[in-house]
Amino acid sequence: MGGGTYERDVYSGSSSSSWGSSSYATQRLSSTRLDPSLLPNGKILRSNSKTPIIIVLDVTGSNIEFAKVVYDKMPMFYGQIEQQGYLKDFDISFCAVGDAFTDSYPMQICDFAKGIVLDSYLEKLVLEGNGGGQKMESYELMAYYLYKNTSFAPGSEPIIFFIGDEAPYPYTDEDQAKDFGIEIEEYARLHPFECLRKKVNDNVFCLLNKYCGDRFESSITHTWENMLAPEHVIKIKEEKSVVDLMLGVISMKSGSRTLAGYIGDMQGRNQTEKRIENVKGSLEKLSQTILPAVVKGNVPMMFDDKKPSGSGRRI
């Protein structure tokens, strides 16, 4: 399954396996020690494509299976973008996030790549499976890294997905940022997600899972809705629909499909009526608000070392 530039010799479709039981994904995503190439320290994540796609996977215990589903479905995801013409020029970077207060590898950064090469990056990720257990993970640290340490081509339209079930911490810890080589702008007063939204023309989305797979926590939902445009907080009503939701966002943001048109594409790939109804419901608000985004201010794609004097622990 897949097609075009993303074909596997062996492919296990998660649509035909039970949630989290794909033995192929489990076998391939088995790294226990972080590959040095995934360290964020001193790394600039660069893309020259028209539409860079960044997929941030929460790999703490309550979300670890999502990485396996994304791996299983990546040939379909990539193939649909190509075959349906959602995007003409794109590449993908996978990042993994955990809890910087408790985890050994709370930030893992894969380079942008295209086609089957993406498998080799996914297979380097360490699915640590820990986390802090306090309804917060270090999403804000990842957001600040992506704000500070990414470089995109002029005129590009990056799209960033955070997939998880908890909330960001309310501030970026300066010591943690320094540990991962992220330069803190001491004069900054905006939350990292506000900075990141400005940088990528508001194309930041949270695909929100039920907390610990049980229920949507209103406090977590409200936190994300305060960090992002509320319609960019998209609930995952059925775990296996996570890739369908990303495809729906991409197809609508690119202008190649309306929600109705994308639902037609889902029907064309023989998705179940339940899956289609869940995806339609989750994307409804976004479909009603998609307009060309206008971001005020001048947020550079890269940063120099100049900053005013002063200090601050939290930004």
Relevant terms:
315 residues; alpha/beta; Rossmann fold; six-stranded mixed β-sheet; two-stranded antiparallel sheet; 12 strands
How does this model look, in words?
This protein is an alpha/beta fold. It has a single domain, classed as 3-Layer(aba) Sandwich (Rossmann fold). Strand 11, helix 7 (218-227) and strand 12 form a beta-alpha-beta unit. The chain starts with a strand and ends in a 26-residue tail after the last helix. The strands form 4 sheets. A 6-stranded mixed sheet has the order 6-5-4-9-11-12, sandwiched between helices. Strands 1-2 form a two-stranded antiparallel ribbon. Helix 8 crosses helix 9 (259-268). It is 33% helix and 15% strand. The protein is globular. It has helices spanning 23-28, 64-83, 117-122, 139-148, 174-179, 192-199, 218-227, 242-253, 259-268, 273-289; strands spanning 2-3, 6-7, 45-47, 51-58, 90-97, 107-109, 136-137, 150-152, 159-164, 167-168, 204-208, 233-235.
